[in-house]
Design a protein that fits this description.
Two copies of one chain form a homodimer. The first copy, chain A, is α/β, with parallel strands linked by helices and 409 residues long. The first copy, chain A, has a domain of 139 residues: Thiolase/Chalcone synthase (Peroxisomal Thiolase, Chain A, domain 1, 3-Layer(aba) Sandwich), CATH 3.40.47. Chain A is built from 15 helices and eleven strands. The longest helix of chain A has 17 residues. The two termini of chain A are 18 Å apart. At the A-B interface, α3, β3, α4, β8 and α11 of A face α3, β3, α4, β8 and α11 of B.
Chain lengths: 409, 409
């Protein structure tokens, strides 16, 4: 019997911002992530017992490691509070959630702050793309390759094409839904990118080729951003609820989680998955683990999904890997409008990564925060009606590390 | 009541090696850390359920992130096994130990492999020193400063000088003990640095000024290296012991741990500690926490210490922070021979960081492995007679993140 871990709310920075242009760095971003979370959850700094930071590569983008050291630097009441940083490329926010919840389940602490964070608009796009290559096997998959990740995720599409067939129109529709949903999200990177009333993704700069089968619209954009969220033990949450005249049962929990790591190299993944019905079987397994731990029979027990659409191909993959369709039939869910904002199972009501932005280490935490907002009815214009349980899927590398969660009441 | 976490053994690479000169990289180092640990602990790859990697900055030194992705790459039986990487500068190995043990305490897994790892001999010393600056507040404490860390730890000595007085001869003796102990350790970086029979630290290159009050002999040297260790639940350990005709009680555990984080900036630390009897009160607190959790009244209940002597000043600090002497009186323990290899409480029987080498992210795990070796009587020529409990102290940054442990039977 595992001790429950509750979510008490948190904060997301505006993913459209460019912090360097504001003269601000990652320390200021940590500061805002902390103060915003305290305000949102109506907690005091002195109540936090431990902080976990999810970050991919501040060493490269910001020439700064050891981010945990900044908590006590920005607020003396954190002095002595234990901190650590966790990394699994674009799943860094997800593993930070896992480490924070493990320490609570182990009974070490009652209130943890998780901060997913990345400042990326510090270098030009080519250098940034090269840095991202360190999330793959750099020597073998990225060195000397311009923008390695779009190429890797184009190959995910190639694999679908080979096994099941894949039409460009379905990827385009995934992009369209994400950009469209992002317009409802006041913190989304792209919310005002389309000044006219129509989303023109079929021509112009968004339709330009990016890599392989992917066009610009198929790719999420890196950005600057942080998302923070409080995780708490049952004891703490009971007192927290009492002080606010809430019932414990009204507060959401991590109902289940899955964590799996596949071989680093995309070639190895695909070679290995040859006999599996799913193209990325370990990603599938992480989802299955999360639903099993949550005691949910299938994907229809959740009212929405926040998935890792670093590219449209990864969302296309997620659709069948979540079991919304049979393997290879993700297109059916797209055509039937199932994943639309007002569909049977909305995917990325927030706009996801393509619409919302992808500050790499923040994404897993941002997904958890969006799940929290949905299940507590605080998602504003992108609120899913009747959302009680939301599934999240956070992926690092070319499908290498997967962290899946079910968050809800 | 916390679930116990056992140590089943592990492996250390030879810290005198230069992997780049051997034509090998960090992937080969992970491979050796894994296979060596499996052999040492007589376990099969398929038994490992989760892997945690402690690493400071492979992004900088090796242009490679997402190290957890290499486990399944090097052995297909790891495919799908969850992995993550943890960082707190030079305490990265320590936080990886904490995260692995948290997941076991939480009941998530029964057998975890922890790998502390760093390949650093990939860049010239000036660049490497600059990279290390990201363990401090780079912009404010390291940028444009040649070798920032010796300067910061010289200032730790300055603070001792100011508060209590500090003699160079005592720092020199700390260096001498570590270099001398290292000669007994077949994996120590410096074991054959002194070709004649005498350790000449008082003249020649080892006596050259390094930074501030520190000479070359006062500084540990970065190197390439990995240390891996298995952590296991009581259930797993019971079966493990049965299969080997051992008793559960013969196998060592993490008896207690402490984890504290101070403000990043050295100035802030010193300003804040003004009213504390200890110069680094949060480091002191981490030690106190570890002994309290272990149920040990004082430092005399352990038979040895593996401490973080990145510089002689940090070991000088550790002596009084462990409570071997009153604050400021570390020199007494040095003069009385207490910390000598054959003293009442040997410190760094392994040679520590100064004698053994400091592959940054590996150090915390290497300390735990040396503690395991001591308490199971496998430390060979550097075995402490009758060692049943060993304390470890792993420090990241200028005393920023501290992980302390008591390991024993």
């Amino acid at each position: 019997m595992t001790a429950p871990v509750y979510l008490l709310g948190g904060y997301q920075t505006d993913f459209a911002r460019n912090w360097m242009k504001e003269g601000k760095g990652i320390v200021e971003m940590i500061q805002e992530a902390v103060s915003g979370a305290l305000t949102a959850a109506r907690l005091e700094a002195r109540e936090i017992e431990v902080a976990h930071i999810g970050n991919f590569a501040a060493e490269l983008y910001c020439k700064q490691g050891h981010l945990g050291g900044f908590l006590a630097q920005i607020d003396p009441s954190f002095s002595g509070m234990p901190t650590s940083r966790h990394e699994a490329a674009c799943a860094s926010g997800g593993v930070a959630m896992l480490m924070a919840s493990a320490e609570i389940e182990a009974g070490r602490y009652d209130l943890a702050l998780v901060i997913g964070i990345e400042q990326m608009k510090t270098v030009d796009p080519a250098v940034g793309g090269d840095f991202l290559g360190t999330a793959a096997w750099y020597e073998q998959e990225a060195k000397g390759i311009e923008f390695p990740f779009p190429k890797l995720f184009s190959r995910l599409g190639d694999e679908y094409e080979k096994r099941f067939g894949l039409k460009e129109e379905h990827l385009a529709r995934i992009a369209e839904i994400n950009f469209s949903n992002a317009r409802r999200n006041p913190l989304a990177q792209t919310r005002s990118w389309f000044t006219n009333e129509t989303l023109d993704l079929a021509s112009g700069k968004y339709a330009k080729p990016a890599a392989g089968r992917l066009r610009v619209r198929d790719c999420s954009q890196i950005t600057d951003g942080a998302a923070s969220i409080f995780l708490a033990s049952e004891n703490f949450t009971r007192q927290y609820a009492d002080r606010r005249s809430l019932k414990l049962e009204q507060l959401p929990r991590i109902l289940g989680w899955g964590h799996r790591t596949a071989p680093m190299k995309f070639d190895t993944k695909i070679f290995e998955s040859g006999n599996s019905p799913c193209v990325l079987p370990h990603t599938r397994q992480a989802i299955v683990d999360a639903f099993r731990r949550a005691g949910l029979a299938d994907v229809w027990r959740v009212q929405g999904i926040e998935t890792h659409d670093c590219f449209t191909t990864s969302e296309y993959m997620a659709i069948d890997h979540f079991g919304i369709t049979k393997p290879g039939e993700s297109w059916k869910a797209i055509e039937e409008g199932i994943i639309d904002f007002d569909g049977r199972l909305p995917v990325n009501a927030s706009g996801g990564l393509i619409g919302g932005g992808h500050p790499v280490g923040a994404t897993g935490t941002r997904q958890a925060l969006d799940a929290f907002k949905q299940v507590t009815g605080q998602a504003g214009d992108y609120q899913i009606d009747g959302a009680q349980k939301i599934a999240t899927l956070n992926i690092g590398g070319s499908g290498t590390t997967t962290v899946a969660m079910v968050i809800g009441i």
